[in-house]
Each structure stands twice: as C-alpha cells, then as structure tokens.
Specification:
The chain is mostly beta strands and about 230 residues long. It is built from one helix and 14 strands; from the N terminus they run αββββββββββββββ.
Length: about 230
C-alpha cells in the first residue's frame, strides 16, 4: 500500500509536467563498471532512465540491473519559486531495491527533500538538495523489517564552457540507485557532450567511501559510468 501511494503521487506529479509548455524528454542508458576490483560480470551494472522536464517541474523513472541486485527508481521535483539567480523547489525520491547476494532483502528508500539551483552566469550552475532518508529493509530470513532514519544530500557544480559541453564535480551521500545512510559519501567528476542532433554522451568517475567523516575514513571503490542519452 505504501509503494502504491508513493507511485500514485509521482504519477500525478508527472501528469502535471506533461501539461506544461516547453516540455523536454529524454531516454538514457548507462553502463557501469567497478574500476578497482577485477573486471567481471559481477561488477557490471546496466541501467535505463526516462526523464522529462517542464518550466517548473521535472520527473525521472528508471531501472538498474546488476548481478546481485535490482533497483527501480522514481523522482519528482516541483520548482514553484525563483528569486534572482536562485530557484527553489520540493521533491520526492522513491527507490525499491531487491538484493540477493547474502540473503534475500527488500529495501524501500523514501526521500522527501528541498531543492535549490543557483545560476549566476551562462557558464556556471550549482545544484543542491537535502533530504530526509527513510530506509525500510525487510530481511525475509528473519521475517523482520528494519527502519533507519538519516539525512541525505547532493551538491553538484556544473561548468559549461560551450553550449554543447559540460563538466561537473559532485559531492553526495546518495547516488541514483544507491541510498546509504549519511557519512558514506561519494565524490564524482564527469563530462557530457551533446552532438548537434538529439544525442549526448557522458563519462563519469565516482569514488566511494564507507566512513569518510571519521579519523579512520575507509575507501570503498571507484566506479566508471558511461551514458548515452537521446533527447527530444
């Protein structure tokens, strides 16, 4: 019932986006590979994402498949306020993770949050959102649901030296299809190039930590993502 209500809310918000003018839609596919561990099918992920964006609303829906888990993700953000170079919004992320490597677990990640954008010039944009993370994990071996409450954030700085090219750096405690509790951050840097037509291509490097904000910060791994996107 909880998943149904969240899906219904995001579906209604998506309908709001379709009613807006200047609607942009895109579909993308991403290949991810662990760059530190030995190259193998177990370290490979494949994901797809559909996105739409209107003048005051954006939405996403996607799937990711790995050797040991499966994710489905939805996100909606409403941007009702703007002041100068700032834009303010509120959004909701819902992610469902099915994991079967050590035990069969089902995790619901629910993240209501507030969103900010600041673009003082044509070549620079900052994006920030902070969220409440509600994690409900059901472990079927013990027939028990564990509840974790935490905070989450994502801070992204985008540099656009030309109309078709973007560089970015990002610090976050969450990623698409990965929602860990706070203090397990990831650092990402990437580049995206948009051709003269509808296609764009992106390459991203993500460095993950398990416990960065202590004296014994633990490096986890590095992941390389390649994305091809079609926009219309």
């Amino acid at each position: 019932m909880r998943r149904f209500l969240l899906s219904l809310i995001l579906l209604c918000l998506s309908a709001l986006a379709f009613s807006q003018e200047n609607l942009e839609q895109s579909a993308s596919i991403t290949f991810g590979q662990d760059a530190v561990k030995p190259v193998s099918a177990e370290r490979f992920t494949l994901s797809g994402m559909y996105s739409l964006a209107g003048e005051s609303f954006s939405a996403q829906a996607g799937l990711q498949m790995g050797c040991k888990d499966f994710n489905t993700r939805m996100q909606g953000v409403y941007w009702p306020l703007s002041a100068g170079n700032w834009t303010f919004g509120a959004g909701l992320i819902y992610d469902l993770n099915l994991h079967w490597i050590y035990d069969f677990t089902l995790t619901n990640n629910i993240l209501p949050g507030i969103y900010f954008k600041w673009q003082p010039s044509a070549w620079y944009r900052m994006e920030l959102h902070t969220d409440a993370l509600i994690k409900l994990r059901t472990i079927h071996a013990i027939h028990e649901t564990l509840i974790n409450l935490s905070l989450a954030f994502e801070w992204k700085n985008c540099f656009m030296p030309s109309e078709n090219f973007m560089l970015y750096v990002k610090l976050s405690s969450i990623e698409d299809y990965s929602y860990k509790i706070l203090f397990a951050p990831s650092f990402a840097t990437g580049a995206e190039y948009r051709t003269g037509g509808h296609m764009s291509y992106a390459l991203e490097t993500v460095i993950r930590y398990q416990d960065f904000f202590t004296l014994s910060a633990l490096y986890n791994t590095t992941v390389i993502n390649f994305t091809a996107r079609y926009t219309w």
